[in-house]
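Why should sequence recovery work at all? Because a backbone constrains its sequence more than one might expect. Tight turns favour small or flexible residues, buried strands favour hydrophobic ones, and helices have their own preferences. The token representation captures these environments compactly. In the example below, the structure is given first.
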């Protein structure tokens, strides 16, 4: 539910905040007052493209924020978790447009992409405007409507799980069959490669360790000489470093009582003396153990040469990769022996899943075929009720191969003028017809599907009188279970509101701004009376308006 909408520096809006009812919200106002601007601002936080031309003050940032109540909405919680966004009972969606044209989006104060806005918007708001035909003409939406009215959504979910398992099992079977064909082509070659690696018998990190040993063996004499020099220079030369350090330490100790910092300095020199003694001893010991071993050097070179040849042959870099290749080849050779059993097992699984999925698809198809005439009857009745007595909806169901939603291809066909020429909705229905048809359909499925906030932008074009009244009644009933926001010019619809908002223009100096405020009951009566008879409503119009509001 959209709790509030805050808009700042957008088009001719300076700053305004709207707090909505959780039922039927009606927005009215004179033509050009800014009702469409409100929808434009809302569209920005729903992921529409930003445009700096919409900034009222080009030197200031445009700021639009929607606060939604999302408690008990598992799909939204899932979306937030998947995108590492913070979960709260309230969801805050914000869009900012800088004067430079740069746009930023936030979900619960965390930066988000425009694509993420669009994805979450589909879970929060269903914005239907004139000529917005995409959803109603969408095969997925049409199937959902039919399945919802037939109470088949749980069965459909069960079917989809089976269908998904069947597809995965089929893919595994195909991979096994292709693997078997490849195995027989490559069996001898794989055996040769495996034997070659097994004979080499490398251990983990062996080549890397041998390379280090080779470096040590190749420079054994130089290292031995250097270590001896280190030991000699530190403690046996004409001016041993160790002796010099010890003498300096002793000299400092003689004067340490004369300066507060000398004891610490003397201590540090003493530590250096001890460390240098240790270094000299260790260097001497290491030098004594260094031996030039030509036989070991030859063996290491041969071993490394073998390893590098195999690495180059297989395009690898490390001993670990060679061992992984050996294990992989071993598994392939073993798999040749096991693959026929695996294929037989997978074929049985595919057949079983196909049988189960087909049975569920047939149940779905039967329920859809039974529900289609009922859907047609209810929708056509509602169409007549709202001023479209000649319009007819027809549900076409044709069989297809097994697919993600069953074996049915579902399409809503439409005839606006009793011509008996039914065509796909997207091809023949006008904007006003589509809007009212969508209202009828959604009013039927509202109890079966957890619809988001429904927003209807001027769907009442071309109707008046009793038809407009019936549209209002449908919206009023629909609003009892979910939030509806409707922009309308029809008093019959405005009279059904749980909350009525009036959009107006006002002039401040040389600037024109748009404002909006919620009307009290008496203000509503006056506003509706003006919709009926003009700026100076008659007494009859006022009485008529009062009756509309009281109903």
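From this structural description, the recovered sequence reads:
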């Amino acid at each position: 539910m959209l709790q509030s909408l805050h808009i700042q520096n957008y088009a001719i809006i300076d700053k305004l905040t709207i707090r909505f009812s959780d039922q039927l919200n009606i927005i009215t106002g004179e033509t050009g007052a800014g009702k469409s601007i409100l929808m434009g601002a809302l569209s920005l936080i729903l992921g529409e493209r930003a445009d700096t031309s919409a900034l009222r003050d080009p030197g200031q940032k445009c700021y639009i924020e929607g606060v939604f109540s999302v408690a008990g909405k598992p799909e939204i919680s899932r979306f937030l978790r998947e995108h590492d966004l913070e979960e709260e009972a309230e969801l805050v969606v914000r869009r900012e447009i800088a004067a430079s044209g740069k746009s930023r989006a936030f979900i619960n104060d965390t930066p988000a992409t425009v694509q993420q806005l669009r994805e979450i918007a589909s879970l929060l708001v269903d914005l239907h405007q004139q000529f917005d035909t995409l959803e109603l003409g969408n095969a997925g939406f049409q199937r959902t409507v039919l399945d919802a009215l037939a109470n088949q959504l749980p069965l459909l979910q069960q079917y989809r799980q089976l269908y998904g398992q069947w597809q995965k099992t089929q893919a595994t079977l195909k991979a096994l069959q292709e693997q078997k064909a490849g195995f027989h082509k490559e069996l001898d070659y794989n055996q040769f490669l495996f034997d070659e690696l097994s004979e080499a018998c490398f251990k983990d990190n062996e080549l890397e360790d041998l390379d280090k040993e080779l470096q040590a063996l190749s420079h054994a004499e130089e290292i031995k000489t250097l270590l001896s020099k280190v030991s000699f220079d530190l403690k046996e030369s004409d001016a041993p470093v160790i002796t010099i350090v010890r003498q300096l330490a002793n000299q400092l100790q003689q004067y340490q009582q004369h300066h507060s910092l000398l004891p610490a300095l003397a201590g540090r020199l003493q530590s250096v003396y001890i460390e240098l003694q240790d270094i000299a001893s260790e260097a001497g010991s290491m030098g004594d153990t260094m031996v030039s071993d030509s036989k070991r050097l030859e063996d290491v070179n041969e071993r490394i040469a073998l390893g590098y040849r195999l690495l180059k042959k297989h395009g690898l870099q490390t001993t670990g990769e060679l061992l992984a290749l050996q294990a992989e080849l071993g598994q392939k050779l073993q798999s040749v022996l096991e693959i026929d059993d695996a294929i037989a097992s997978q074929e049985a699984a595919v057949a079983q899943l196909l049988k189960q999925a087909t049975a569920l698809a047939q149940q779905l198809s039967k329920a859809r075929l039974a529900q289609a005439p009922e859907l047609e009857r209810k929708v056509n009745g509602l169409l007549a009720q709202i001023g479209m007595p000649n319009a007819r909806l027809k549900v076409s169901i044709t069989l297809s191969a097994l697919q993600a939603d069953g074996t049915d291809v579902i399409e809503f066909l439409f005839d606006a003028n009793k011509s008996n020429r039914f065509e796909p909705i997207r091809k023949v229905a006008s904007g006003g017809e589509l809007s009212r048809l969508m209202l009828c359909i959604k009013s039927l499925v509202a109890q079966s599907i957890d619809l988001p906030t429904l927003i209807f932008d001027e769907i009442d074009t071309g109707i008046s009188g009793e038809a407009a009244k019936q549209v209002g009644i449908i919206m009023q009933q629909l609003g009892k279970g979910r939030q509806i926001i409707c922009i309308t010019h029809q008093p019959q619809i405005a009279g059904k509101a749980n909350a009525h908002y009036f959009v107006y223009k006002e002039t401040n100096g040389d600037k024109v701004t748009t404002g909006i405020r919620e009307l009290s009951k008496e203000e509503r009566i006056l506003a509706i009376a003006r919709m009926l008879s003009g700026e100076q409503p008659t007494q009859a119009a006022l009485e008529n308006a009062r009756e509309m509001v009281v109903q």
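A few observations help interpret the result. The chain has 17 helices and 15 strands.
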